[in-house]
Write a structure and sequence with these properties.
With 394 residues, the protein is of the alpha/beta class. 37% of the residues lie in helices and 16% in strands. The chain has a domain of 213 residues: 3-Layer(aba) Sandwich (Rossmann fold).
């Protein structure tokens, strides 16, 4: 293990590694894992990668687990990067368009990446009981990885979470509690009970390691593009850990000499009816106010207040990117468009990137022949209710 310490992303207070930590004790913001990258690059080389395992643990030297016996894995990561030529033909500007299909992960979403890292570290640090608030896919991933690790999983989800997620958690041994409210209400319940119950809270960015698993999307993207990063990345944003993680990965890769200074323009995509990052970004704010009366059929986007808001907005600003909101009607329609053109049944969150890309083209934010990647963060089969809702409303 090449971890040197944990660092607060906001006030930069340092903490020793190998201890159970949630947020910074000084300012209450997320902690990030820091590595000895000079040491890591001695064995983690571009030339070594082709012979390594075909999952995210191929980047072991920049992941936090010390003892490989503690890795809890279903073979997550190394998802396909699909060229989307037929979909690109529907756009008014010629682009090199790709879909990074995270729906092909175990538990059918990118959340598997975060949970393999978080649960492996929980195992290494002796945790027995876990708790998480979730809009759906994180819960399914936690339940599966906790079961594989022999840990107790306590999950709190909004009562209108897609049924597939609820059933998935129940059938993989988790204790499931449904709350009449939003993910923020579920988080409040975890916070209220965790000390008395002896739970370790693995909420988004409220522990340091889920981001480490998700950052591997950035490593994979660079490797799949032969170390030339795309011009634009559109990423559906709820808690935003995937975007934050990739931005961290790009910095680490540059420090190891794998890539240069060039960065993709990062684009945060949200729903018009839950768009705290979009609103804050366009108002020139670094911290986002809670979005009142948040609702969207794309349950993963229904996060009215993200604790990593400033890290998302920093990445958008530093990359000269932007934030775009689309309607529920647009994002659900886009699921069918992507499916018909490319055969990928996307989650509505991932599909939201298509109408967002069209808006970017209208605003001249994408240039002809740009290389653009849209992230599909999950499998559409988990969201059958949202298609029925839109059909009945139509």
């Amino acid at each position: 293990m090449n971890v040197t310490h944990l660092e607060c992303a906001n006030c930069h207070k340092n903490y020793e590694a190998n201890q159970l930590l949630n947020l910074c004790t000084e300012c209450g913001k997320p902690l990030l894992v820091r590595y000895d990258l000079e040491k890591a690059k001695k064995t983690l080389t571009k030339d070594s990668l082709p012979s390594r395992r075909s999952n995210l643990w191929r980047y072991m030297e920049v992941l936090p687990v010390k003892n490989e016996e503690n890795i809890v894995s279903f073979g997550e990561g190394w998802t396909p990067l699909l060229e989307a030529k037929r979909l690109a033909e529907t756009l008014p500007v010629k682009l090199n368009l790709y879909i990074k299909d995270e729906g092909q992960n175990p538990t059918q979403s990118f959340k598997a990446r975060g949970m393999t890292a978080a649960i492996s570290m929980a195992k290494e640090l002796g945790v027995k009981k876990l708790a998480v608030p979730s809009a759906g896919n994180a819960a399914g991933a936690l339940a599966a990885y906790a079961a594989r690790a022999g840990m107790e999983a306590n999950i709190f989800m909004p009562s209108d979470t897609p049924k597939a997620n609820i059933i998935e958690c129940q059938q993989t041994g988790a204790n499931v509690t449904l709350i009449d409210g939003l993910i923020t209400d579920c988080g409040a319940e975890v916070a209220r009970r965790k000390d008395a119950e002896g739970w370790f809270d693995v909420s988004t960015l409220k522990e340091p390691y889920r981001a480490e698993g998700k950052k591997t999307m950035g490593y994979e993207l660079a490797e799949q593009f032969k170390w030339n990063l795309p011009d634009v990345i559109l990423y559906p944003t709820g808690g935003g850990t995937g975007l934050i993680g990739m931005w961290k990965a790009f910095d680490e890769m540059e420090k190891m000499g794998w890539i240069g200074e060039k960065r993709p323009r990062m684009v945060s995509v949200q729903s018009l009816t839950c768009a705290p990052i979009v609103r804050a970004f366009h108002e020139g704010k670094r911290f986002a106010d809670e979005f009142e009366n948040a609702e969207t059929v794309a349950s993963g986007l229904r996060v009215p207040k993200a604790i990593g808001d400033f890290l998302i907005i920093d990445a958008l600003n530093e990359s000269k990117g932007t934030a775009i909101a689309v309607s529920d009607e647009e994002l659900v329609k886009a699921v069918g468009e992507i499916g018909a053109a490319e055969g990928v049944f996307t989650a509505p969150e991932g599909a939201a990137c298509l109408p967002a890309l069209r808006k970017m083209i209208e605003q001249n934010l994408v240039k002809e022949n740009d290389t653009v990647v849209i992230f599909n963060t999950g499998a559409g089969v988990k969201y059958l209710e949202c298609f029925q809702t839109i059909s009945s409303n139509g």
